[in-house]
């Protein structure tokens, strides 16, 4: 499971999914767009149905990747432990991995029922600048989940959903940052074009997924 707002899905998401598939020996990586974020508003949200549609377009044709509407099709807040419980009910005979960045893993103690998350799934943790592996390991040890993480060493892809939205708002191209079908949908529907203009940074802003 790889969870995110996917607002929009970009090539960094897909590279992480691919790396997890290859390094962890997975049968599938399931992308799960956030439904109702419990801790913060999803910025510039075009709607959960649109984010789900974009995510499906992003992975179309790649048999390694799937998409689940478990969260977007629910009226309940999107808590990761509950999504994992539902996946466990659907796939009782499969081992689950929860793929996330090291920044999210290091902050797992602040999530809702983090011990339950570690009970249901092992973590696939991708490196993030400024977050050491020791920070992740220490957080998991405090939660009683020592040894429940596999670390993914992968190239840093300096793209974020925030960057993409701001580039669209500024009239700048996003090709090679998002899959072509996603770029086409954004252009056809005028998504993000009405955002307030302002400084448009080139550096990405990391979006941590609410628990």
Structure report:
The chain has 211 residues and is an alpha/beta fold. It has one domain (2-158): 3-Layer(aba) Sandwich (Rossmann fold). It contains eight helices and six strands. The strands form two sheets. Strands 1-2-3 form a three-stranded parallel β-sheet. The chain has a three-stranded parallel β-sheet with strand order 4-5-6, with helices on both faces. Strand 1 (2-4), helix 1 (11-24) and strand 2 (29-33) form a beta-alpha-beta unit. Helix 2 (48-59) packs antiparallel against helix 8 and helix 3 packs parallel to helix 5 (114-120). The radius of gyration is 17 Å and the shape is globular. The protein starts with a strand and ends in a 22-residue tail after the last helix. 39% of the residues are buried. Residues 197-211 have low confidence and may be disordered.
Furnish the topology, listing elements before pairings.
Blueprint (H helix, E strand, L loop, with lengths): L1 E3 L6 H14 L4 E5 L14 H12 L5 E3 L12 H11 L6 E5 H5 L7 H7 L1 E5 L6 H10 L6 E4 L8 H9 L10 H10 L22
Helix pairs in contact: 2-8, 3-5
Percent in strands: 5-15%
User: Mean pLDDT across all residues, rounded?
Assistant: 92
Helix tally equals: 8
> Low-confidence segments, ≥5 residues, pLDDT <50?
197-211
Number of domains: 1
Named CATH topology: Rossmann fold
What kind of sheet is the major sheet?
3 strands, parallel
Oligomeric state of shown chains:
single chain
CATH class: Alpha Beta
Care to count the β-strands? 6
Q: What string, H for helix and E for strand, traces the elements in order?
A: EHEHEHEHHEHEHH
Widest β-sheet, arrangement of strands? 1-2-3
Q: What structural category characterises the helix and strand content?
A: alpha/beta
Give the overall form. globular
Fourth-level CATH superfamily: HUPs
